[in-house]
Structure formats: C-alpha cells, structure tokens
C-alpha cells in the first residue's frame, strides 16, 4: 500500500530510511538545488521556448535545461502580452514540477475512501478498468450515468472534458467557475454586443487575451479605465497588470476608477476608489446609467445609429417591433424579421428603419406611441424607466458609498475619454451574474465605447492556431440536451454545453430525475472550489467510480478518488496560445514519471469505449462521419497528432514553431482593425453591424429574452439548431437589481458581508504545496476594517472564526482600512499538509471559504449562478488559535522542496 502525499510524516519515514535527513536539513533550498546540478564540466545546457500554465495568461517563458533537468525560468520578451514578465506563480514552476508530492503513476484505491490508501497500477489497467465500468453502466443506465467535471481558469484544454462527455453520450459536464466565472460575462456580451452562435466575441475581461487594446501602449489612445470588480495586478501580474502599469507610465498617463470593496494595488493608483458593498454592483451600475442618461452624457450619434435604443418594443412579444407586425412591411419578405420600427419625429409616425440607417428619418429616442393598435415605447424609454429610481443618493445608500464619490467616478469615465470598463469576475459570483454583465454592456454602449481606438470592446482578427480543440456539439442529440441537468431553466449554460451544478448534485443525492454513478474529474481540488463544499461527502458517497486527473493529490483525491491519473505540469506539456498578434508555443521541456497529457487520457478512454461498442465514441473517432456533420474534430490517437491539431492554420510545423517560440502572424498595424461594424459585408454590400438580432448593440436585449424561450443561439442537436422548452419565466431583456437574499439590511444574526478576491500567490487550489509560496502566504488572512474589528472584539493578527449559515472556518485577522466597513475579505484556501495525516479531511474543512458559501438558490435565471460572494457571516476571536497541525512557519514546508527525477520516455506514443 503506498500513500499519495509526501507530507511531513511521509517525508520523515522516507528520509530516515535513506539516511538523507541530515543532508537535506543542512542545505539551504536553492543551494541544494544548485549543488545537485552544478557540475559545469560534464553538463549540457540548452534553452527551450515554452509558456507558463500556472494561470490562464500563458506568459512566454525561456526554460534552461541542464543535464535533462530544468534549472532556470525566465520571461520571453517576445510576447506582446507578458513582454518578458513572469510572476511568483510562474517562477515557481520548477518547485511545482519537481514537487515530491507529484502524482507519478496511475493509482487505484485499495482502502476505504478518505484513508489515503492507493496502489500503483499500469496505464493499461487503468484505461481498461475505467472503460469497462463506464461501458457497463452506459449499457445498463445510459450515457447519463457519467458526469464529468473540470477546472476553469488555467486549464488549457477547457473544451476537452466537455468533448469527452459528449463522446461518451453523457449530457453532464460542469465546472465550479463557469456559471460563477466568465460564462455569464461571455454569454451576455455575446448576446448584447454580438458573438452569436460561435460565442466568440470580445468582452470586458482582461485575462484570456481579452481587452487586447491594453497591450499596445504606443498605439492605444485610452485615457481612462474603470476596473469594476477586477484586480489585474493580482489576477494577471505579468499580463494585464503589467500592461496597465505601462499605460499609466505613458506621458499622458491613465486615469483609473476602481469599484472594489478591497483597496487593491490598482485602487491605490486610482482617481476614485468606490469600496462598494459586495453584491450590490447592479444597483451602482443602474445609478451610473441613470446619471449618464439624465445628464445627456451619452454618445448620441452612436446610440441613435448603432444601438437598438430608438427601436420600438412590442409590448405583447417583448421583442423589438417588426415593421410587418404593424403593416409597415411585407411579412413574406426575406428581411421581414430584420426590419425594425422607429418613431419618426419629422412625420410624427412610426416608420421602418432601413439597414443600417436612413438620413431622411428623425427617430425619437424617448416616447410611448400608439402603433398598429398597440402602445409601444422605445427601448430607451423602457431603460430610462427601469433606472429612474437610481439617483446618486439611492445608489450611495444601497451600495454603502458616498454620492459625491460616485458622481466623481462617473465624471472621470465620461469626461476623460477615450475610456473603457473592465468587468471582472466579482459580478459573476452572485445570482445577478447576467445583470452585472448587462449593466457593464449598457454603460459602455451608452458612451459609444465600441470598436473605436482606445475602446476595449473590439473584434480584432482571429488567430490562425486552434487554441482549444473544441467540443463535439455535432454529435449531441436531442435526448442529451433534454437530459442536461438544469439546462431548461438556465439556458445560458448552453454557450459551453455545461450543466447546472446544484441540479447535478441534487440528481446524485436523490436519484431524480436519474442517478449519475461515475464521475470523471480533471482539475485541482473540488473540495476547495465548489460552493458549499460540505455537501460533497454525501455526493461522493453516492458515486460508484470517481477518477481524478491531476498533477498531485488534493483533498478531492483522498476523499473521493478511486483512480488517480497523473497529468503533466506545464513544463511537460504542449499547446499553442494566441497572444494578440503573435502565437506562443508551450512545448515539453522535460517529462517525468508516467504523467500524461490529459488530452491523451481522454482519447485513450474514448477509443477503448468505442471498441467496447459506445455508439457516440464510435462517431467521435470516425473522421468520415464527423466530416458529414461538418466537424473536423476526430479524436486523435497520440501526442503528435494532437500537437498537429493545435497548429490549426499556422504556416509551419510544430517543430518549426518550437524552434521559434513565438510567431507574429499579423503585424500590430493590421491587427488593430477598428470599427469592424462599419466594414462592408461583401454579400450585402452594406455595413456588417453586430451579430445580434438587430445587428446593432442591444442595451435592450432581445437575445437574452429569446435565449430563455428557445435556447438560441446555443442549443443544437445533430449539428442543427434545436428549440428547447422555455424556461418557466421569461428572462428579462432589461437590467434590474435584486438585493442579495442574505443581506446586512435585514440580517442581525450574521451582520458582516463576506467577499473574496484573488491573491497573487496561488492559482485557485494550485501551488498550495509549493514551499516558497506557502512561506509567503501560509494561512488565509481575514481582512477587516478597524471599526468592524473593534465592534467584534477582533485584533490584528489574531486567529478568528468566520461563520456563515453553512459552517465555520478559521483565518488570521488583518485589520486594515483597505476594506469596506462591515465587510470581510478572505481568499480560498486549503491545506495539503493534512492529506497524509489521520485527519485528511482537515485539508479542506479548516480554512476553506467554500465551507461558507451558498448554493441553495436563489439562482441567476440565465446562468444558474449561485452565491460565492456577498453573503452574511459573523466574525469572532478564536481563542484556540491556529488549527492544530497547520503548517505556518517557513521550515514547516521543507518536505515539499523539490525532489529530482530524471526524465522518462513518452508513456503513450
Ligand atoms: N468561494 C469561491 N469559490 C470560487 C471562486 C471564488 O472566487 N470564491 N472562484 C471560482 C472560479 S472564478 C473558478 S475559475 C473556479 C476554479 O476552480 P477549479 O478550476 O476547479 O480550480 P482548481 O481546483 O485549482 O483546478 C484548476 C487547476 O487545474 C490546473 N491544471 C492545469 N493544467 C491541467 C491539466 O492539464 N489537467 C488538469 N487536470 N488540471 C490542470 C490549473 O493549474 C488550474 O489551476 O473556482 C471557483 N470557486
Ligand atoms: N493569482 C491568481 N490569479 C488568477 C486566479 C487565481 O486564482 N489566482 N484565477 C484566475 C481566474 S479563473 C479568474 S476568474 C480571474 C479573476 O480575476 P478578477 O476578475 O480580477 O477577480 P478577483 O480578484 O477574484 O476579484 C476581483 C475583485 O473583486 C473584488 N470584489 C469582491 N466582491 C465584490 C463585489 O461584490 N463587487 C465588486 N465590484 N468587487 C468585488 C475583490 O476584492 C477583487 O479585488 O483571475 C485569474 N487569475
Ligand atoms: S501571470 Fe504568472 S502564473 Fe500566470 S501565466 Fe504569467 S507567469 Fe504564469
Ligand atoms: Mo475563474
């Protein structure tokens, strides 16, 4: 029986056995590293281009390898996004690669779950046993016996677990980010600004290569940046964090407005910091919108010609009025559905608006008119009515801000253009996820901050490589769509073909509407990342087989896994990345043990299940069949064919790109294609517009309304659009505010609002076992305002309990004015040091903020988002001090210092 984790206990045993303890104890960490490889006379040194994967930014790296071991990492200045920068997480790549806790070989559980007893098995045995079990249940219970889950940020193959799920005929894949991260913004921007079916659109997020305008300080005229619920200096230190610092350093500088309960490094540089009460962003956005409208600060020309604000709304359908519905056009005409109606002030009558604009018309922005027997208002009128109550004072009262500061912030944004608004993940983490993205869209649209120089909303050309290999939506059938859990209600999940986590978990625990039995999981630590983590033991209990694909064991491995499949660290892995106008490579620098790229693991299982008779898997490996349904995504059979697929349309081979490291596929000049909407569509000879129902940007979102009614534009089965049953209630096409269910306005028992946000030391659950990083941030800080601390008897550096209605955890108080009053900030944390003890569950129960979070509804209608931020807690001193057994002092982490291994051969050819 071998144990997975090399923590202190395991380390002591091993060290005593080999007599190595004294040697290790005497050497300092870096010294030990160098000593092992300092033999200059015999060494062979080479430099390899690659890129970091410790977060999604994929900063370009040059790795130095000596005698087959990676000894140095440095930034490659050739990337326009990272420009030679690397952050602490990236520079920890060597410690992560050679971490003694790596999952080295496939393992199978031999004792009870939670006892950390596993034995080594071969890859052949692992693939065979897993495939046999999956097929046995596929035949007995159908594809829905399988659920797959993945991690979000940082996982390069984001589409691959979804593709695998589809290839095995299962409807359910999920991810703890997803509805709580990125998806609500991506989908909403796609519906309102345009992206349509492909979903690819620029959005106001500064990771993932978004906001490309930021990376060209010599080109962009941007003058003001609003950072709304985002902290670039922490989430992308060498990417957008660095870029924004560079913009600020230009002669003309950069004005910043920061909307964030925490005083971030960016807030420290801002003209205005608005320490908003968590969970109230949409109220503040509506305040901004009202102010911009009332003071006529909006871009009148853009709003008139390129938004749907002047269009009349049909009160019966809630859609934009079509000309033929009121006798102003031919219902049978080709463009019948695309001809909208304005109120022409010249003739004082309703009139159809020809695409894109007719100078003969003078459309009214505001007004309510009798048209064709209906009372129709313009979209702008409905928006103005919706925000009417949101005066500066009301916004200030609800968001716990100062009215004058709000006004000052808006004025910086409106008066000192060109300006842009970056919307971070904060609004994705509340049941108002869609509305937060809508509010941000509307603000940017009103100001005309769309596709002009300096704007963040841009459609620059698509890169030639295949960033993510994609999904197999073309083999999904109607039955799978109908069975996807939570999808009918929350159809926005369709943009990534994902299921709704709370509905999946309910199915697992109740067997309704059916019983999932097997769980394939490919990320770090679900016990630390999923909301209301205390629900997990009951879910794990119900599962018959759980496989964990990861680089090292986490709480999930010990508590849940039956099979552990070792995946590659980024220094072993391969990929191509689009960095604005360049392509960056990630290539294997070394390869240790029997780790395998996850893409190969999925392919092995799919191929075996195809042999065992799974009809979906048979399609997924059949190039001819896939071509017949318009897909080129046949499951590869090995590493080389997968690397070749990543190359997409790049004009060179993988090996050639590997030599180059970076490749400029388009000049910076040609990359900056502004005003895409005004470019002429060859098919029509007219302006292209935007990919929305009206082909204009839509502050009044018909796309959101129709998503709820039909699933369009993302429901497709057998390669065709498929009309889903409507959600129980229409999605609202206009922005609205709801007070959080748990609110300080009404909660006396739990008076403090908890929120979260990134710290620069870790990426989600990863790197918590990297000694240097844990030394820098050993335990979670609970940031609390001095007045709130005093009112709760809390002192600086004291251990405190943080308790919500779901559970309680411990952290260390950091009393600071850098946080809003009556709010605490805490980061997600888990403690790998407990894994190899008699109480492994302490790894996720002691300091994990997700013990506190709330997943029992209210959900966001569009996306099913649950509450990770902006809920109520109480905070009080913990006289017990630190949790027993937690590692806190620098020397505690020594068992995690690098353990060297020689490279191994490829495992699967
Ligand atoms: N309370 C609370 N909960 C949250 C959040 C919060 O702010 N507060 N944030 C949410 C957000 S935004 C997200 S995106 C999720 C993140 O949740 P998860 O993505 O599940 O996070 P991790 O468990 O760290 O697992 C993802 C990690 O997998 C690693 N990985 C990299 N490559 C591979 C690979 O090839 N194979 C495998 N198997 N793994 C790889 C990446 O380094 C990445 O960090 O958490 C969410 N949960
Ligand atoms: N170091 C590091 N970098 C990461 C990650 C990581 O885990 N670690 N994860 C990656 C991933 S997947 C993501 S999604 C991104 C996230 O990157 P960002 O979008 O920057 O997200 P956070 O830092 O989590 O949250 C942004 C800010 O929102 C603030 N905030 C909290 N509650 C509220 C609120 O109610 N309203 C407003 N307006 N602000 C609020 C927090 O204080 C925080 O400063 O980071 C990516 N990069
Ligand atoms: S920001 Fe840091 S962790 Fe992210 S890719 Fe760059 S170096 Fe790696
Ligand atoms: Mo995320």
Automatic annotation (TrEMBL):
Signal sequence bounds: 1-22
A Pfam family found in this protein is TAT_signal
Establish whether keyword Manganese is in the entry.
Answer: no
Which keywords does the record carry?
4Fe-4S, Iron, Iron-sulfur, Metal-binding, Molybdenum, Oxidoreductase, Signal
Q: Which residues form the 4Fe-4S Mo/W bis-MGD-type domain?
A: 45-101
**Which NCBIfam families does the record cross-reference, listed alphabetically?**
TAT_signal_seq (TIGR01409)
PANTHER family documented for this protein: TETRATHIONATE REDUCTASE SUBUNIT A, TRIMETHYLAMINE-N-OXIDE REDUCTASE
Name the UniProt record assigns to this protein: Molybdopterin dinucleotide-binding protein
Q: Which organism is it from?
A: Eggerthella sinensis
Q: What is the lineage of its organism?
A: Bacteria, Bacillati, Actinomycetota, Coriobacteriia, Eggerthellales
